[in-house]
Q: What sequence folds into this?
């Protein structure tokens, strides 16, 4: 979808894949204004923004956006970046805050994707040495 927004176009296989995804996730109706369903997932990501750099739990995901729990305050309309690392790949999404609800000590946040997502391949150039950042991640 991002390639279409950029005007790059799709090849035949990509057109088929997008059509199948849209058909599987299109909503039957409703008053929410959303075009696609969100699927329950269990992912961990990092939410980055103006004075934000927090680990969040992603509980629902769809082509138009996602819902995360354990999130910091994200104002409606605020632009953020979401980073999801899976194996040797890092997925980067830009999104805007759509809604916010109290969720214990933190918030449950609805985010709408904007722009083109990126997929970065992580390559280990040299052996990793355990450091302070690794200790912080292990404690989290």
A:
């Amino acid at each position: 979808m991002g390639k279409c927004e950029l005007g790059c176009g799709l090849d035949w296989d990509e057109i088929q894949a997008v059509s199948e995804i849209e058909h599987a996730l299109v909503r039957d109706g409703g008053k929410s204004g959303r075009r696609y369903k969100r699927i329950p997932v269990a992912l961990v990501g990092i939410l980055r923004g103006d004075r934000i750099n927090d680990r969040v739990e992603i509980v629902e995901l769809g082509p138009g956006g996602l819902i995360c729990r354990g999130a910091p305050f994200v104002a409606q309309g605020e632009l953020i970046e979401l980073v999801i690392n899976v194996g040797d790949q890092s997925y980067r999404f830009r999104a805007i805050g759509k809604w916010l609800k109290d969720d214990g000590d933190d918030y449950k946040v609805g985010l709408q994707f904007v722009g083109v997502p990126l997929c970065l391949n992580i390559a280990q150039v040299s052996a990793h040495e355990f450091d302070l950042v690794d200790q912080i991640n292990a404690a989290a």
About this structure: The longest strand covers residues 106-121. The mean pLDDT is 86. DSSP finds three helices and six strands in the chain.
